[in-house]
Amino acid sequence: MEEYDVAVIGGGPGGYVAAIRAAQLGKKTVVIEREHMGGICLNWGCIPTKALLRSSEILHLAQHAKDFGIEITGIKFDIKKMVERSRLVSKQLSSGIASLMKKNKITVIEGAGKLAGAGVIDISTGSKIKAKAIILATGARAKSIPGYEPDGKIIWTYKEAMVPEHTPTSLVIVGSGAIGIEFASFYNTLGVDVTVVEAQDRILPLEDVEISTLAQKSFEKHGIKFITNAKLGKITKHQNSAEIEINNAGKVNVLRADRIIMAVGIIANTENIGLEKTKIKLDRGHIITNQFCATDEQGIYAIGDVAGAPWLAHKASHEGVMVAEYIAGHKPHAIERSNIPGCVYSHPQIASVGMTEAAAKASGKDIKVGKFPFIANGKAIALGETDGLIKTIFDSKTGELLGAHMIGMEVTEMIQGFVIAKNLETTEEDLLHTIFAHPTLSEMMHESVLSAYGKAIHI
Question: Among this protein's residues, is 438 annotated catalytic?
């Protein structure tokens, strides 16, 4: 039986990163992956969806070229070529991960791994390996609702939504989190009649209320329809469409659509990995760990989606590095979850870090709130992207940056400035005295901080 220092079950953004860091630290490392290196993120999530959204962004620019003094006639798009490009992007990155495995002398075993006691892992191909430390990085899969189980034809998961053979005429998306909103934005740009159904009282329910409200108004301006406080009722499938009953505040509406995308969350992949043979405990389907991702079973760790929220690739990767360093005897910093950014790559984009205004108030803190709109920024006006807002929240007693919330062009890139500020425990004084380049979108970050302290210049 081959023996390793570190064995990683799952080759997604958490697993493969953990393996690389472990190997860098001199550990003999193996990754067991049942499908594709890179996991859902690289193959069916983060990366291919962004490739598709880039295609829709270019289409949007072409459709509005006349606003910039450019005439383009006969604008067409080819959904098959869009899909082909997104798959090629994923393939390129997957090949890159394979190269990284070789470069770092990491063994990759194709198959499903299952805990078999005392540091032993059974491989579905019939072999066994042994490891001093085991990292569970098995990820998660799409959740379904009874009666609305995906069938690959009428009812889609994110996978079918990423590889359509043709664009549907009409589409209902159940769920208004990041996945649902990104698909709504993509298909809306392609001219599809899109309706988003949300069980809660607002879309993007994890975001700051003000940002959520602005997002809905912006999406509605582009033609996306929303039904909140909605409860799914009976579904009637036809050969190439479906009718869905929606209960909204006691009133039943019937929606008709060619396709339905289910975007109602995820379920951790904890089945068939041998947890029943361990002391590992679950909470609402996710593996319970301590601050360094250690489970209740000695020598076994869990990272990424299988270990709970937030279900983000960058959180998984950071956990992977932290765990590898912890196993190697280093003293890594535990992750501060309030410093993990969240992003939605729709049009407009949404990004946030830290407390919402409501959460800050609920915590009993005395706060200062600053806001700055895109319409008052020179670069945004020049780019023709004036929908948006930057919002910052500070502790009025200490000057601590409690949260930052953004909607608008390229805010998923700008949010990192506030993430760094939070990680460095920056106060408002530091941010007020920071010089931002002009003309840039990032100037609005500065103006938002100035606004919180009654010093805004351009509004």
Answer: yes
